[in-house]
Amino acid sequence: MANRTGDLVEPVQEAHKLDVKALYNYASAHVPGFPLSPSNITLSQFGHGQSNPTYLMEVETGGAVKRYVLRKKPPGKLLQSAHAVDREFQVLKALGDNTKVPVPKVFCLCNDPTVIGTAFYIMEYLEGRIFVDPKLPGVAPERRRAIYRATATVLATLHSANVDAIGLGNYGRRDNYCKRQIERWFKQYLASTSDGKLERNPKMFELVDWLRKNIPPEDSSGATAGLVHGDFRIDNVVFHPTEDRVIGILDWELSTLGNQMCDVAYSCMPYTVQIGLETEQLGKGLELIGIPEGIPSQAEFLAEYCFEAGRAWPVSEWKFYTALSMFRGASIYTGIYNRWLMGNASGGKRAAHTGTHANELIDIAFSFIAKKTVLPERPPSVSRGRRQYVTENKAQGLPKGSGRFVPSKKIQELRNRLIKFMEDHIYPMENEFNKRAQSDLRWTIHPEEEKLKELAKKEGLWNLWIPLDSAARAKELIFNVSENAYFDAAHDRLLGAGLSNLEYGYLCEIMGRSLWAPQIFNCGAPDTGNMEVLLRYGTKEQLHEWLIPLLEGKIRSGFAMTEPQVASSDATNIECSIKRQGDSYIINGTKWWTSGAMDPRCRILILMGKTDFNAPKHRQQSMILVDVQTPGVCIKRPLTVFGYDDAPHGHAEISFQNVCVPAKNILLGEGRGFEIAQGRLGPGRLHHCMRLIGAAERGMQLMAQRALQRKTFGKLIAQHGSFLSDIAKVICLKTRAHTFLLVIKSKLVT
Length: 750
What we know:
Mean pLDDT: 87
Strand order of the largest sheet: 2-3-4-5-7-6
Number of helices: 22
Helix content: 25-40%
Radius of gyration: 29 Å
């Protein structure tokens, strides 16, 4: 049975009592909406867990009760770097404000120990269920499977967070995580067993030696690096009160950047050993005592995670990651026992057995290492509705293989629909589009293009580039729709299919087979980059005024950065000025190669210029929205590449002479231009590259068709050895580039 979150509290332990009046004074000044004249404030302590003391704060006003959760450092002398509540607050705020990772909302952080004795933060109380026992007693078998599936999925969601985009890029080192973990926890083990404390176990030294010799190569390369929770397990997540979905991930004390497979292995510990504080000895794992009906096997749970996260099957590394989890657990238990001896363990008397538990974990780790195999060679299939994760992909035209670069069934279906749409509608119109682009009507839009755009919307092939987290922000800001509320289907179509960068890459490749395709699906540059800027950094007013028409395909946009007088690939050279005058900004300068500006539908430019020429080098630049119809904006001419002007899209030279735009048009604030540029260009560059792969494939197809139609020296060109050699080389080069790009995009999965 599950425990309601409110059922896990008990009276505050004597060692953890605090000044309630001082807490109230601080909370009333720093927590938005905190009751100012409560009739009663009650504090109780969560007994589950052994880390930072955590309290339920109930504030009663006129019969109504508001609940908050307070989490603080324990009192007394602590190990260096342990119990960093400020880091917990930092990661919770970053995830809560910028991603769909379910976490409690945090309200305030107090680093002043004079308030209640140690640093603390206050967050929202989540009313839900916590499954303390991983065997899920009293839960129906079908719901057990759903609960474990939700746990694997939310861990994959956590691991998909783009730490650079949400301000956690410096939250920790990404490489050599396991190596550093070994040294860190061994150092803490030594500190917790010194000076007459718990006797040191010689086997712990042997275990450290084995781990040091068996660190997987992926740890030093950072191939599996990202945000790491550090203590992810089923009893550290809160489930919805009635639904089998996760509404909050708790206990972020050990979070950092590093090797995410450590989180996965730690979450699988119940399959090997039952960790608990209620008994004198640790229990046997699920795979030894028999897995309860409905709960997936360890391999099935792991396959579920690998499918959701796009990970390769870790058969050769699993022994190391699991042994590392046990080693770390032994060190943590030793630290808890040490705190129990000093009287400040948050688990109270239940911590009395942790010294024994630490030694048991060391023995279990050696037993696990001694096993011949710990995982099957290939992952079991994971079927869910219309998606499947298996080791072979039999979809037509897709490569066979296993691991993260085989598209999911969802992407296969989108890919096939795109191919059919292009074969039925776009390829047949290419000659007509090209004729118009070379005629006197080159700077007008072919009426068939708008018809095809409406058809693409109806077929669900519209705005496929939009990442899931950006779509969620748009729903909230533009349409005032919460995560689980009903959402109008017409609006939903505007926000894409919820794809990651890696998933969208497969579709970019198809669109790249025709110059005209990206704009038909509203996936063309520079609009996608500009819409991404608005989605991520725009205000609600900016989104309503400019993003919605762009999402609907009613207008187009341009990006004004490059200047004729300076090498603009180095944006610190930019000379265009953006000067504040009252409620406006005045822009002066010249831009060229402003892609999209010649299109008659172009209505908005994102311009990069300097707001402060005396600021630090990378804080001088800002980005601002400029309506092309603003007085002083002069589109002077289209620029050409080898005589080609790319009509009706075009690349324009534009002068800005005393162009006055409202101050509200600034994006994110003055001096944030570089920050926005990096968020805009990272995925965009890779989208371009994947489209080029598609263009190369189309070129190869045309080359092969020609070779099968023309003869030289008495036989078809396709029959000549030199041709076969050349096309083989081209295929090899294209495949190598394709694989390289997928590897890069897999590191930007958001």
